[in-house]
From TrEMBL:
Similarity comment: Belongs to the UbiA prenyltransferase family. Protoheme IX farnesyltransferase subfamily.
One record GO biological process: heme O biosynthetic process
E.C. numbers: 2.5.1.141
HAMAP family to which the protein is assigned, alphabetical: CyoE_CtaB (MF_00154)
Protein name: Protoheme IX farnesyltransferase
Record-annotated membrane-spanning stretches: 29-46, 52-75, 96-116, 122-139, 151-169, 175-199, 220-240, 246-265, 277-297
Enzyme class: transferase
Species assigned in the record: Parathermosynechococcus lividus PCC 6715
Catalytic reactions on record: heme b + (2E,6E)-farnesyl diphosphate + H2O = Fe(II)-heme o + diphosphate
Coiled-coil parts of chain: none
Length: 323
């Protein structure tokens, strides 16, 4: 019996088709974007965000991120077909056609824009579209295949979701919103480069100049440590001068930052150690999730206790048994 060759036009079960489109959106990446968006909304609303607005904004953010990731898959399908970890994706394997992927991405982007424009405001809708444009135009098209600093500059796309969340709540962008942007922006290189160190052979095979490929593990590890060193004080700017969260968040930020710095320094001692790079990559994800959780919980606690961030530490100190 002749072997059946699967093409994009071969009829398939709808469950399999949905799974392929789901994979195009890179859902694991989307989850982290949504966590940063939700945290920004809680802080912007001073702990009392509308559940309906939160739901609509997160749904819109998922659609916008899914659109950007799908276009990324579409653009990179040539190198994805060569790289070991990506060659089984829907586009290089032929399970989804380029036209189908493009229409899917445009549909997701349109849904995101309409939902935000109707139920939030035009600023948040435009910011969501800007995030797609930066990820596709600046990172994927311009920098990814041309500069070892691709993830540094292109990382701005991943820092836009908290701006979307902040704008959805307030209709504007305060200094605190831009500090959230800066936190994600500075966190992105020490988050992504350990992964790049693990799969640098794949990147070298397709001539993508990721920093470990161009400058080696030792330089990459030093850069990771320096960015992590800058991340810790940046995360504390939300307390002072912004004054939007209190020292409950601050203590968590210091503890998490210390753990991040320790692992980054540990990697600089043996830059070629893949297990250290893997540990740092995993911790970077946990760091961002817990940091966002800490700022949201701190802001909600302040709202429940009817405290301002400036008086939180003084009030909590008074509650201690030895005070």
């Amino acid at each position: 019996m002749p072997e059946t060759i699967l093409t994009a036009t071969t009829p398939r079960a709808w469950q399999s088709l949905l799974a392929d489109y789901w994979q195009l959106t890179k859902p694991r990446l989307i989850l982290l974007f949504l966590i940063t968006t939700a945290a920004a909304m809680v802080v912007a609303s001073e702990g009392t965000v509308s559940p309906w607005l939160l739901l609509v904004t997160l749904l819109s953010g998922a659609c916008a991120a899914g659109a950007a990731n799908t276009i990324n898959c579409l653009y990179d399908r040539d190198i994805d077909a060569i790289m070991e970890r990506t060659r089984h994706r829907p586009l290089p394997s032929g399970r989804v056609s380029p036209l189908e992927a493009l229409l899917f991405a445009l549909t997701l982007a349109a849904i995101a824009f309409i939902l935000l424009a109707v139920f939030a405001n035009l600023l948040s809708a435009c910011l969501a579209m800007a995030g797609i444009a930066v990820y596709v135009g600046v990172y994927t098209h311009w920098l990814k295949r041309s500069s070892p600093q691709n993830i540094v500059i292109g990382g701005a796309a991943g820092a836009i979701p908290p701006l979307v969340g902040w704008a959805a709540v307030t209709g504007e962008l305060s200094w605190a919103a831009w500090v959230l942007f800066a936190i994600i922006f500075i966190w992105t290189p020490p988050h992504f480069w350990p992964l790049a160190m693990l799969i640098q052979d794949d990147y070298a095979r397709v001539n993508v100049p990721m920093l470990p490929v161009v400058d080696g593990d030792a330089t990459t590890a030093r850069q990771i440590f320096l960015y992590t060193l800058a991340l810790v004080p940046t995360s504390l700017l939300l307390i002072y001068p912004c004054g939007v969260v209190g020292w409950g968040y601050g203590l968590a930020a210091i503890a998490l930052g210390g753990g991040f710095l320790y692992r980054a320094w540990h990697l600089t001692q043996v830059p070629s150690d893949k297990e250290r790079a893997r540990s740092l990559f995993k911790f970077s994800i946990l760091y961002m999730m817990l940091l966002c959780g800490a700022m949201a919980l701190d802001r909600m606690l302040l709202a429940q206790l009817d405290l301002s961030p400036a008086t939180e530490l003084q009030t909590l100190t008074c509650l201690l048994p030895w005070s």
